[in-house]
Amino acid sequence: MDALRNRLNRITHLNQAAAVLEWDQETYMPEGGAEARSLQVATLRSLAHELLVDDETSRLLESAQPESDIDGDVIRVTRKDIEKAVRVPSSLIAEMAAASGRAKGAWQKARANDDFPVFAPHLEHIVDLCIQHAEALGYEDQPYDALLDQYEEGATTAQVAAVFSELREDLVPFVKELTSSGMLCEGPVHREFPEEDQWRFGLDMAKSMGYDLNHGRQDRSAHPFSTSFSISDVRITTRLEKRFFNPAFFGTLHEAGHAMYEQGIDPALEGTPLADGTSLGMHESQSRMWENLVGRSLPFWEYAFPSAQKTFPDALGNVNLEQFYRAINTVVPSTIRVEADEVTYNLHIMLRFELEQEMIAGRVAIKDLPEAWNDRMASWLGIRPDNNTEGVLQDIHWSLGAIGYFPTYALGNLMSVQLFNAAQTDIPDLHDQFRRGEFSHLLSWLRTNVHHWGRRKTAGDILQEVTGSGLKSGPWMAYARSKFGVLHG
Amino acid sequence: MDALRNRLNRITHLNQAAAVLEWDQETYMPEGGAEARSLQVATLRSLAHELLVDDETSRLLESAQPESDIDGDVIRVTRKDIEKAVRVPSSLIAEMAAASGRAKGAWQKARANDDFPVFAPHLEHIVDLCIQHAEALGYEDQPYDALLDQYEEGATTAQVAAVFSELREDLVPFVKELTSSGMLCEGPVHREFPEEDQWRFGLDMAKSMGYDLNHGRQDRSAHPFSTSFSISDVRITTRLEKRFFNPAFFGTLHEAGHAMYEQGIDPALEGTPLADGTSLGMHESQSRMWENLVGRSLPFWEYAFPSAQKTFPDALGNVNLEQFYRAINTVVPSTIRVEADEVTYNLHIMLRFELEQEMIAGRVAIKDLPEAWNDRMASWLGIRPDNNTEGVLQDIHWSLGAIGYFPTYALGNLMSVQLFNAAQTDIPDLHDQFRRGEFSHLLSWLRTNVHHWGRRKTAGDILQEVTGSGLKSGPWMAYARSKFGVLHG
Fold this sequence. Notes:
- Two copies of one chain form a homodimer.
- Chain A is an all-alpha fold.
- The first copy, chain A, has two domains: 86 residues, no CATH class; 376 residues, Neurolysin, domain 3, CATH 1.10.1370.30.
- Helices cover 65% and strands 3% of the residues of chain A.
- The first copy, chain A, has 21 helices and three strands.
- A three-stranded mixed beta sheet of chain A has the order 1-3-2.
- In chain A, helix 11 crosses helix 17, helix 15 runs antiparallel to helix 16 and helix 15 crosses helix 17.
- The termini of chain A are far apart.
- The mean pLDDT of chain A is 96.
- At the A-B interface, helix 1 and helix 2 of A face helix 1 and helix 2 of B.
């Protein structure tokens, strides 16, 4: 067991080092360092992969004598990781890396010139490689299952499609109702918020929620993210807009939510493949919980608003709590996913989920993708993008080969409410605690029920054990109706 | 050759990644991340070492068909690296790592309480391990040769001792003369220099000397250093003192000098063991040249002083060029090496060099080290430390096991003048160029004669080829007499 752990430590250290290099690339690296950096990261990732699939690792797995439940889980999860890793030929991985390198460049060019045909042949190639990838991984029902499983272990296309379609039936008319009410004004969040004050206020609030800055820090980057270098060093980044309160503040809470998950993993799992979030959906449930269910709630702002007013006297001095609460919860259909509000966001995801399935199944030709995108936007959200840069070209994911990733964003939203409801059952005065600026009970509840398990339990298992049921759309829809129904009169 | 290069690339990438992790540790890492970080770095360094000494690397070296002079040098230098690496048993390396971990803690404690006996047993152990290390590496004349050779390949104790002792005979009386002249006043550099302005001014000047910020950047750290992540990403750090101009400004030039060396290495050497400075002494010659021979010269300040006055109107508004030039060139014996001026600095080094030899040869008992230190300080510099914290406990090097490292600082000083004189022969109007803020000719000269070779030539070879002679103390002494003789009337 010791020999196995030593080997897994090495693999973990290589991946952690790669994460540090990638973090530096997005935060501090001088432009000229990019080429060498991508070679360094590739070497670290390759070495980690080679060590994992090496016969010696399998031999150690065979002969290891587990001495605890954790040891048993380490062996079980590592075996599964190896099984998946060996199925995909390294030639395919290399081809995907090369193809996505080219596709990313083409995507940037296509976006800059609103020129989808520049990107189309690259996307065709990526889709083809993803199908090969799915075939290599194997699946029971359909190829998309294999792609989805990479990000959300155990979830199936059919299951997700069923939940999403149930949700959509309620959501599309609900969005129409909300947007016709005309009750909201987001003016207060579009005033002048000095950048240093935004930085400090966001980080103070993340800290008061439980993000541990002795084991984390925040830096700036073009696209906010969180990243873990070990359970004891989990960092976040943010971006600042001078005249828009939301991106930095809710971005910070969102990334801090991800980071608190990683900080809460059982230290006994450090150095093993178990010291990670169990799925992207579960990860997103944590970020969305702190961003939306806490950070966009009225009880939270009953606590935080006086401090926000003090921090931003020019912007918020003549705004009251209710106006502010309405401003941060305005529902307005927009074409851009990353700017979408809490309610319409899920529709952006479902659109991508459907198109991904159709691409993989060959039911839509790549050349027809812009039209398919725009038609669905019009039918579900009531708006049509003016161009492809604001439509089908807006996200980087497909150019990276990450097909099957998008649905996890909406799965996270749904799970966040299911989990929050369970927490509220266990801690009935949760909202009163928020009003007093107390978040430690919620955080310990999440640590016990979600975080500390790392990858020892799947997202599905956690959900079932904690909430008594699998993934459902009903709880999220009920939450949305209750919160936004009131807000929109 | 391709297969060999691929393997060397991997080794290089692992070491470069370790450098990124170490840089982060000194600049941005949250405190709580330290333990995991040291494990990550250890894994990367071990993997690099294992790949280097692995039989497969030797097999590739045997069968590689060099197609160029560079290929030939890659094979030659890699062979030599392996020969040295395999001589030292990994148990000894591990023991040194463990011992220096403990010694560093004891050193910090001893320093804090001026309690040398707390550190003494650890130092004894370190010295013992260094002797074992020297025996493993092998030497012709004496064990200290092997230690010195790790940092300054090809240099011998006897050769360095001869040059140092010649230098000391002139230097000790010269320092006495200078310090009795009482001609200098360093007041102007001890005024208030706003930190952001220091930052900008130092970096602007480093940039004008040729430090390429598209392939580098500066951050803050407690102890300034430069580090290379590839030829295309070479960074520096600095520290700022509000009421002292010198640490940040000359520290920035010093580190930028190191960094320009690494930025100037032939890109064809990237990914091989040749893409590094050829010795610590040669490295230090570059940092000292830009810090002292350029940065503390009168011609440089004829160019830079107006801009300094504009940047720091409060501190320098009523100071003239000559007063400022005298202030930055004040010679005052002090007990602390890192605060020493250009002239007395070498005596601090020689003291350490002698004591290191005596420790390794067993000619001084560790318990008598403080007395030996203080006596020599009194005899050479005319001052006696008040306590051991300002005496024998001031440097971290010995606790890290880095015996043989110190002499390279003074070697760098000597080489810097030998090289600068050669540059001046080739570019007679060098000082006039400085007066106009032109540094590109000096930099290209250094690139051609020193930098671009990387480790293809040893420091000794470069010195011989470029200056027509080996290491000598005369040129440095002549430089010091001419510069400081004038300054001190």
